[in-house]
């Protein structure tokens, strides 16, 4: 399960829907796996406005991943200026229209797209229910007494 996915999930219990503590789900006993993926500046730049920044920072802290800045970077802050501005033929897929990728862009790419939870649990901060993650797949089916 990619860490990007956790940024869009909350506890499945109805009682937790009204509380802020149900988001984000906190990893417990998580076994991480790094799956290398080619750097995609365009994807990171486009997904950034949809990411709940504080939840992502909390997740990085819980898992011991690289610390992210206190505030979400603006899309222009993800690239260093390109000394050859105006050169045609360079697409954003390679180095970006704005220039070379910054360390922040590389860290975001690593956290969002390359880091996965292979095994472990996701715990709701509101009710404490634990969702098992096995072979990278989270089980969000609730037992009948919790539905």
In short:
The protein has 147 residues and is of the alpha+beta class. It has helices spanning 3-6, 41-47, 53-63, 103-114, and strands at residues 26-34, 79-81, 99-101, 115-123, 130-134, 137-138. The strands form two sheets. A four-stranded antiparallel sheet has the order 1-4-5-6.
Q: Biggest sheet: strands, sense, closure?
A: 4 strands, antiparallel
Range of strand content: 15-25%
Our Rg estimate from Cα atoms comes to 18 Å
Report the total helices: 4
Structural class: alpha+beta
Shape: elongated
Strand order of the largest sheet: 1-4-5-6
Which sequence of SSEs, written as H and E, runs from N to C? HEHHEEHEEE
Bin the helical content: 10-25%
Distance between the termini: 24 Å
How would you summarize the topology of this molecule?
Blueprint: H1 3-6, E1 26-34, H2 41-47, H3 53-63, E2 79-81, E3 99-101, H4 103-114, E4 115-123, E5 130-134, E6 137-138
Antiparallel strand pairs: 1-4, 2-3, 4-5, 5-6
């Amino acid at each position: 399960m990619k860490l990007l996915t956790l940024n869009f999930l909350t506890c499945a219990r109805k009682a937790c829907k009204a509380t802020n503590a149900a988001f984000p789900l906190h990893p417990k006993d998580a076994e991480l796996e790094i799956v290398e993926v080619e750097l995609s500046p365009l994807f990171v730049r486009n997904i950034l406005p949809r990411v709940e920044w504080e939840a992502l920072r909390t997740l990085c802290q819980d898992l011991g991943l690289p610390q992210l800045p206190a505030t979400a970077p603006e899309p222009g802050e993800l690239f260093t200026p390109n000394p050859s501005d105006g050169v045609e033929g360079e697409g954003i897929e390679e180095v970006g229209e704005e220039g070379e990728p910054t360390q922040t862009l590389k860290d975001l790419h690593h956290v969002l797209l390359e880091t996965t939870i292979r095994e472990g649990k996701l715990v709701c901060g509101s009710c404490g229910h634990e969702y098992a993650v096995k072979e990278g797949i989270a089980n969000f089916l609730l037992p009948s007494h919790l539905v």
